[in-house]
Amino acid sequence: MPRSTTHRVDIAFGDCDPAGIVFFPNFLRWMDTASLSFFMQCGVPPWRELVKTRGIVGTPLLEINTKFHKAATYGETLTITTHVEEWRSKVIVQLHRVTRAGKDGAAEDLICEGREVRAFVKRDDHDPDRLRAIPVPEDIRALCA
Amino acid sequence: MPRSTTHRVDIAFGDCDPAGIVFFPNFLRWMDTASLSFFMQCGVPPWRELVKTRGIVGTPLLEINTKFHKAATYGETLTITTHVEEWRSKVIVQLHRVTRAGKDGAAEDLICEGREVRAFVKRDDHDPDRLRAIPVPEDIRALCA
Amino acid sequence: MPRSTTHRVDIAFGDCDPAGIVFFPNFLRWMDTASLSFFMQCGVPPWRELVKTRGIVGTPLLEINTKFHKAATYGETLTITTHVEEWRSKVIVQLHRVTRAGKDGAAEDLICEGREVRAFVKRDDHDPDRLRAIPVPEDIRALCA
Amino acid sequence: MPRSTTHRVDIAFGDCDPAGIVFFPNFLRWMDTASLSFFMQCGVPPWRELVKTRGIVGTPLLEINTKFHKAATYGETLTITTHVEEWRSKVIVQLHRVTRAGKDGAAEDLICEGREVRAFVKRDDHDPDRLRAIPVPEDIRALCA
User: Fold this and answer.
1) What was the pLDDT predicted at D79?
2) Nearest CB neighbour to D32, from listed B14, B36, B58
3) pLDDT for A124
4) What does the DSSP 8-state code read for residue D75?
5) Which one of B18, B32, B67 has the shortest CB-CB distance to A25?
6) Is the CB of D68 less than 8 angstroms away from the CB of C63?
7) For residue range D53-78, what is the model confidence (pLDDT) as tens digits?
8) What rounded mean pLDDT belongs to chain C?
9) I need a surface site. Which of A113, B57, B79, C57 has the fewest CB within 10 A?
10) What are residue C83's DSSP bridge partners?
């Protein structure tokens, strides 16, 4: 079983749109937070530190595929369960499952799922405005697998 | 050739994250705006009107697959080109291509692409808190295809 | 002593801007959540219910004055302490104090403060697109003062 | 007459909340963009350049006072008119007036107003995580007054 972490989200009024449901880019915002939270819960230092010690700026997304199953609204609480499904040489595939506790003891509701492909990046030596993917650091993999 | 529309985005400072590049959920926010803009440029009334005249609340997403090719930052201008790739009985597949004009006459940069599956929805007759997918309205298809 | 509630915020990477600090409109977003959380912690039903039972849509802002004292960044946790400073006939003045726990036992840091003027509103009987301020409901005041 | 610039905003569906109107922190987000746009329209280089050439990271807010007069909703277009009301030694007071064109030739609607106090900041020499206010640069004032 790969290592898995959870991240809690309390949906705010302002996260919802005129249809009264969560405006979907917020789910991706929360998945991004869950992604970072995964690394930090696994013991990886914040990027703010890693950029100083090792030049690692973060793990920008290369791809995200998201499926929406049910709507959610403000006042509700979501749980995002995150793990790394695949470790490739230069990218990782991270999976987020967003659920809401069932009412009155019912099974939980699956709200949406996101499958992310992310790379670890540094700033380019010659052009610091460019970001370059690096091989997945072995020590980070050891902490998170 | 299917009907295609464009939507312009000027990237703001606050759209960017500590890595200095667009925080990715903003791309999906802009694609959502491009999706609505597509319908309005095709002559479909705003949902605010359609909810009154026909009960149609909007076109919530069922799925979005997004690929990120290059980073973008504040001060830059993006163009989102949108069309409907596929009209199924109950869903549509809408494609967004986000580009940045090339510098000094160079070809444009492809920043990211999003493929959305959307349904048209109404509120449920018995439980107005629930949204239900309806068949793709033929008159809207006629305006947008 | 007026009734006071607290609301916790964990700052996310995407809440911060290219200067590496919280993009300030997010503080106002969190104050809005703290405002609603205040009412709910005091026992006021969610607007989603109140709009059905009494037509009350929410408490839109008339004015907000915000002072920023220190920057905050991702990975940090904030506490927003909220109370109603003044109950007038048609508006309330709500105060939010945003603090960060001090490091190593030091006193807490005051990050920012917001003073909001809010009204309770209903939709206009004749034009449901218009919102109209109503007198502050006595029962809500009784719960929150 | 001080120099004044304008910035256009097309309100998106996702900028609005379940009450169907603009979620107010978005107004402050747009004022922030208008603030930066003011400097750039006046000929000040982007902070991304100024941080390299002169260490100036940006103009974080010290204070913002905002009054909301009318609601606005998606599909509408706003104009933000910006100028610097006051140049002090270490801070500036910037004023944003957000209006919507009147319908059928009527006078424009004043939607909201924001009065911002901003400082120019650099990173601290000894602790680059700290930002320090500097005297308002004379050349920037000359461009913008």
Assistant:
1) 98
2) B14
3) 86
4) T
5) B32
6) yes
7) 999 988 889 999 999 999 999 889 99
8) 92
9) B79
10) C4, C95
* CATH class belonging to A4-144: alpha beta
pLDDT surpasses 90 at A46:
no
How do the domains of chain D map onto residue ranges? Answer: 4-144
Given a contact cutoff of 8 angstroms between Cβ atoms, the answer to whether C116 and C63 are in contact is yes
Sequence-ordered list of residues with C-beta below 8 angstroms from that of D27, at least 6 positions apart, any chain? D66, D68, D98, D111, D112, D114
Q: Do D67 and C62 touch (CB under 8 A)?
A: yes
Q: Which amino acid is at B110?
A: L
Q: pLDDT band for C20, please (50, 70, 90 cuts).
A: confident
Within an 8 Å CB–CB cutoff, is residue A25 touching chain D? yes
DSSP H/E element including A84: strand A77-87
| Residue A62: predicted pLDDT | 95
Mutant choice from C48, C50, C77, C123 vs A, greatest count of A C-beta within 10 A: C48
For the annotated catalytic residues of B, the residue numbers are 17
> pLDDT tens digits for B72-110?
998 899 999 999 999 999 999 999 999 999 888 888 999
Q: How many CA atoms lie within 13 A of B59 on its CB side?
A: 28
pLDDT above 90: percentage of residues in chain D: 69
Q: Find all residues with CB under 8 Å of A4, minimum gap 6, and list them.
A: A81, A82, A83
> What are the DSSP calls for D2-33, one per residue?
--EEEEEEEPPGGGB-TTSSB-THHHHHHHHH
Using DSSP, state whether A36 is helix, strand or coil: helix
- pTM (2 d.p.): 0.91
Given B26, B65, B71, which is nearest A65 (Cβ)?
B65
Alpha-carbon Rg for chain D, nearest whole angstrom, is 17
Q: Which of B77, B73, B98 is nearest to B17 (CA)?
A: B73
Active-site position among C17, C109, C124, C129:
C17
Residue B1 has pLDDT above 80, yes or no: no
Cβ distance of C18 and B23 shorter than 8 Å: no
* Amino acid at site B88: R
**Count of beta carbons in the 10 Å neighbourhood of residue C8:** 12
Decide if B18 and A47 are in contact by the 8 Å CB cutoff. yes
Q: Which residue of C has its CA nearest to D122?
A: C19
